[in-house]
Fold each of these.
Amino acid sequence: MTRRIVVVTAGLTVPSSTRLLADQLAEATTAQVTARGEGLDVQFVELREIAGELAQFMVTGGVPTPRLTELREQVASADGLVAVTPVFNGSYSGLFKMFFDALDKDSLTGTPVLVAATAGSARHSLVLDHALRPLFAYLRAIVVPTGVFAATEDFGSLGLADRITRAAAELAALVLSQGGYGVGGFAPDLAARPRRTSGNDVAEVTPFGDLLRGHTGND
Amino acid sequence: MQFGIFSVGDITPDPTTGSVLSEGERIAYMTRLALKAEEVGLDVFATGEHHNPPFVVSSPTTHLGFIAAQTEKLLLSTSTTLITTNDPVKIAEDYAFLQHLSGGRVDLMMGRGNTGPVYPWFGKDIRDGIKLAVENYHLLRKLWREPVVNWQGQFRTPLQGYTSTPAPLDGTPPFVWHGSIRSSEIAEQAAYYGDGFFHNHIFWNKEHTEQMVRLYRQRFEFYGHGAADQAYVGLGGQVFMASSEAEAKRVFRPYFDNAPVYGHGPSLEDFSQMTPLTVGTTEQVIERTLGFADYVGDYQRQLFLLDHAGLPESLVMEQLEMLGTEVVPVLRTEFERRRPAHVPSDPPTHASMVAAGPDAAFHLIEPARERVEAMQAEAQAQQQAAGATA
């Protein structure tokens, strides 16, 4: 079965070192998945291209453009996510955060995520742990243990390639384990099957009897 | 089919002149708008309800009563009545009183309100929004339908031996709509009671409106009030008209670009594509509005938003004139032309509900209860039968 991952990259220039890192992560993940005898589709989301639409989404109180609607759907149904941001003023970029703010809070529940960041200096390297991990923890995603941070100087060192491989292997293992939730009935369903919603569709209806229970004034 | 206007009652500076109305001027302007709506042949005037600046519309029944005294036929409604933060006991009294003043020219649209701080100002919590809407509305139905109410709920002090006065006019409570942009629970609520469902429509993409209305229609049928296409649907709309599209855009653009809700965001052109906003000729407005029925089905009420974003009264009155004399007459004919015979043209009115008599399902607190209980009993019997054979 071919799996599908989404690679979100928030680089602003063309070409950008953030995209360069995203490409390497995607390539390494593909290699790890195919090495295990499975196929992988990789879909890139260049946030730069939808910056205007994200701003519109914010100021209209959340009206999605057709392209955002599609992206929300694709992220919510992906088997894994690679999220790469440049470091701006000590954290992820505003554009990076806008994309995740435009997602439904339940769209990454249980999704394996590889976090990565680029910066001009190694002094920002904890950004993965103090900014990106908390964001994805809130979204109940599963962040792989190895995060990949690349300062400019790292593009000339062998250590970066090793970290990329290690992170990709971790992500691949989780991506391939998606869908194997064990035998039904042995664990509460909520824990067994993470519910993901893109936020595009009207929520499933709760029968009114359930909504009214305890509110009829005589019970 | 009913056509009308709805107002949120905002005071927004005119971006082209910087001029700002006083609260008194804005209230008087809204009143003149309502009177003009009747004069140009519209059916409905609906006022918003807000309890924070820049809005003036904190006391809808006071305002609607004043308008009722100066009109003959106009149906007075709300957009919306805050079912969460108002005491349902006071809603029951105020709107029954308004029915008596206006000769039954009243219906209401329930809404939750999305301004967080308003809830604690009225002793409530926005996180209880859906529960408040459910419990308070259920109590409101009882207050309008039971002569003596005993009640103990979660959100207000209990009632023992309480009688709401005055009782609804002719023993017939006003028709109720439920408005919600995103909450499936509210579409479900409207369907459960056989009430109307109104979608604001104007701040959202049409695919979303379509989904919400479809859900309401399916559940209306499920609860046994009629076929899905017979459910009572209302929609909002937003238009600005001139002799040419270019002229309409030229005049409206500064108001659009600075509007409180979507200003400084998408372009007028993009927003017109994403939402039902139509800025152009009366012909374009007619064509676009008729197209609404293609995705929500034949419906019963269309309200337009005209007085917002700092548009001056002179411009809005011109819009209302065009709407009443050039647009709505064509819409009336064309909407009826496409409507199948079994789909009602109008939502229930005071006259139609009185004519239906005191035994009509509408007078039950829960018209769907018997049906739901029967379905539950059947499901249980089937389960038992399955258990017996296993």
Note: Chain B has one domain: 2-389.
Amino acid sequence: MTKEKYTLIKDEVSVKVAASVPESIRTKRIKRTGVRIYKDGCLGISGYMGDEGEAEATKRAEAALAHKISYPCEPSAALARSVTVGVKPFTPKELDAEVAAVLAAFRKDFPQFVLSSPFIKSGTYTEALSNDAGLDLHSAITLHEFAILFKQDTSSSIMDGWFECAGQKYDRETFLAYGSQFLGAYLNKVSLPAGGKLPVFFDDNDGLVKQIFARELGGMTFGSGGSLFSGKAGQQLFNENFTLFGSRQDDYLPFFDAEGVCGEGFKYIENGVLRAPFCDKKTAAKFGFRPSGTAAASYDGTPEIGASVMKIKSQAKTIKEMLGSQPAVFVSMASGGDFTSEGGFGTPAQVAYLLQDGKLVGRLPQLQLSSSVNEMYGKDFLGVSGDKIMPLSNSRWLGFMLNVSKM
Amino acid sequence: MYNFPEGLYSDVRIEKVRATLVQYLKGDLREMRERDTSGAFIRVYDGKRWYYSSTTSLDKVQEEIDRLAALATPAGAIAEDKVVKNMAAEKARPHGFTGKDLRTVTLAEKNGFLSSFFPAVTGEKTITMWSASFSDTFTHRELYNSKGAQSVCEQQFCGIRIGMTFSENGHTFAEGAMKAGGEFCELAGFKETLDKVIEKSLDFLRNSKRVKPGKYTVVLSPLAAGVFAHESFGHKSEADFMLGDAAMMKEWNIGRRLGPDFLHITDDGSCAGSGFTPFDDEGTPAKKTTLIKNGKLAGRLHSAVTAAAMGELATGNARAVSFEFEPIVRMTTTHFEAGNMSKEELFAGVKDGLFIDTIKHGSGMSTFTIAPSLAYFIKDGKIAGPAQVSVISGSVFDTFGHIDAISDKVELLSFVGGGCGKMEQHPLPVGFGGPYVRVQEMSVL
């Protein structure tokens, strides 16, 4: 029998903004702990919140073994590592003052906008996984998330656009410069370049254009034959410049997954060749795949397949070098799009900008974008830039040639 | 119960939840748990700024009140503040749930009920992947504020869901069957729902054709119409989006015509189902709010804060997803009311269009989008085969002007395993549904 503890601690302060001023300050300290008991190929789990309750949770976890939830894998063992990243979080007073200063600057330079934010957050997020088989993993990540929604004061929309910086560092001047680029470009209405099929760029962390892989590369679906890509491992399905891999670091996640697997750099697609689906240990064992280090679990839940850490390998070229003098579209907000069951892609782009020489230079009309997974990641794949969209975050420019029309 | 500081408005929301989850993946048991959680959300208001804290230490609530109060600046006349005036002040009668207590139904019974549907799935060879879950929640909420209000509310909800991926000849299609209700016995009849979904999905898998992008007359099912009402209009009717926004207030001028006379939309927290909210998280009782009446704007959704700012009454729509968050303006059960013709007449009026039966997801701002799952071509008023559609979309207010028919029966639906997202709070249980709605000139991809 092996006993394991999985602890999640959220220690966070956030400021909410309404009508261009801070509206509220919230502090949060939530600790959740799960106790897992591995015995005879089965797993029993229970959990508790706060600091007290381990003994009772352990009893409940032992009793839960009677449910016979199978776990035909060994728990991770014999690895001790602790990683702390990021500088210290803001205190409530510091964050309140910082938000006030940022808003004052934007109000001065862009009085024609009303600004709001559901959350400007700073916090430390701790995860620990340890067991009596010698596993002792600990991660503490401090993150600052500054998200600003904006709308022109003459607009009757809920919001006209947004910009965000999420990262381990924060610098006011850098954030102001980044936001000013969006606000300035938004004020300059421009026409859609002619052509029908245009270079279209997204933030490479935008889940919309990668959701087809999150959906179709799940190990159970893939292994069961229910995926568009089932049975195609080893085949060249996509552009040779397209490599899809797992990176928890780039997503500001702990270096280990919910099973203690460290899968940084795990390749799903390499140079266009389908390599492997994403799997937890149990799914991997069932089909003979490798665990991808992406298992997810609630604090008191069984680890299961998770797919939130897919990155596309970037190229050496900057966005400027990728485009030369050619104008392109940058999609800042595309809500509601999807891939069909056959891989067809369609989405409205509610907020899009004209991208020229690596800069946002004007606001495009609302657009309709369409393509298919085979084309987007095949002949129409432009790649991911080497340079970041903004220096404080991990986002890069991800481009495709897409069919573009005005909505 | 608590010592609320002078010169400030304060409230405390205590939440205790028992949640059950039984989950299978392709017949393999993955979860079987009962989870008990408890926590508190504390708010302090000084007339200018709100100070919040969420904690799992129920024995330290008073400390949190005092800590937040130290951050605030007490105001002598806080009782005269119009936001504070809008807050509840009464000791409300406790609100209990109806029917058999879900906590008395054993895990074995819940598991047995869920497992009884597996043969229908495993018997269909094209289903290559499937998941099944039973979930329920029993929620006990208490609210105390510095005006003397106290309320206790208990609610319960349960549901069953089976998700399936169908595969044949290199084609795949994913769809799910679901049933939910306030009592365990309300899940009866799920087998018929499941069989119907499997039958429709097989037809879609084998016969669907990609739609040619363009403008179509679209008929929305009660499910799709509910999402449309929620996404296209419901979010814009949430008054927190209007605060301090002259342009929005101008657009949201009560009495403004948006659509035909037979167009009515309401939000009602007293409707049984997943949007049921007898008291909101500020203690305001549920009410039916008419948002559109006879095609004209008629109302909006409020918390005590937004109602005070606009000189209107709170509508019982201040909701939080859990004790970790502050209440914000949210919908409950939002739907079109019954319209001007029968379902048959509504379909008969479509020469060349699409019927959206089920959906994968929807979203809405100035432009709304719905990603259909099961969709069909309509030719000369008849269903003419399944259609693959990526997304339908349109401008919110323009689309209301393009509604030309609404059927005369309302079907309200409840859900488990998902809900509405707003800002950082997701998923909040809400109700959908309505009649069939016909829209001209809908953009289809």
Note: Chain B has a mean pLDDT of 93.
